[in-house]
Amino acid sequence: MKQNIVKARLKNSQPVLGVLSNSSDPTVAELCGFSGLDFYMIDGEHSPVTTAQVQDIVRACEVSGITPLARVRSNDPKLILQFLDSGVMGIMMPGVKNAAEVDALVKAVKYPPVGVRGFAPVRSVDYLLGAMNQGEYVDFANDQILVLPQIEDQEAIDNLDEMMAVEGVDGFVIGPRDLAMSMGYYDGPGHDEVKRTIAGVVDRIRKAGLVVGTTAATGDQAKALVDRGVLFCLNSFAGLLKSAATDFMKGRQ
User: Fold this and answer.
1) Residues near 69 by Cβ (< 8 Å), separated by ≥ 6?
2) 220: how many CB neighbours lie within 10 A of its CB?
3) Angle formed by the axes of helices 26-34 and 51-64, to 10°?
4) Helix (H) or strand (E) holding 27
5) CA contacts within 13 A on the Cβ side of 190
6) What is the CATH number of domain 5-252?
7) PANTHER family, per this entry (predicted)?
8) 11, 46, 196, 242: which is the annotated catalytic residue?
9) What pLDDT, in 10s, does the model give residues 2-39?
10) Strand pairing partners for 173?
11) Every domain of the chain and the residues it spans
12) Is 46 in the active site?
């Protein structure tokens, strides 16, 4: 297992920018890495990516120097285990609504004595053929893996204080679109009430000393978020491609 450079930067209050991708092609991850992004988040929720494909995507991330993370579709310890054993270095969990669900996520990600993650001689531990023995790797992995529940509805906001008190959580990522839907705004998060709600959540998470993240469609948006203390910014791969294509096509006008 490699050092989690993204987690190290976040611990030093340095921003990280990356992409959420629903592609099953490892080449996409490789391109994102060589492009200089900090992290590549495999979307295991809104995509056809299977656990069998995750391993090759992680290998591509490692080759190109980008930190592999994943959004996993459900808070299932066995499913989370498959992503982590493949070498994913952080889990973002959608739809978390209360402290019990956050605690279950932490326990699924962490090895004993912190959690209940099962151990096997898999690629995340270099098949036990590398420099670390089992005990050394368990301690290292528990320290290195990022745990990032997503805030996506009003119930999660109502329970935020209890969720932030769960030991082992590194931070929270706000999902603006689903949050807006839960507030009754089905056309998107551009409404003033949604913006005020998100701003309030950002402040609460920052005051708790935890990492806060959310989406940014452009570099200017990411810069504005970072200036507000949002250190974890992600765009979609499709969004980055669209922005670049739109800029490039100006040459035809």
Assistant:
1) 6, 18, 39, 40, 41, 42, 88, 89, 90, 91, 92, 146
2) 9
3) 20
4) helix 26-34
5) 3
6) 3.20.20.60
7) 2-KETO-3-DEOXY-L-RHAMNONATE ALDOLASE (PTHR30502), PHOSPHOENOLPYRUVATE CARBOXYLASE FAMILY PROTEIN (PTHR30502:SF0)
8) 46
9) 899 999 999 999 999 999 999 999 999 999 999 999 99
10) 150, 213
11) 5-252
12) yes
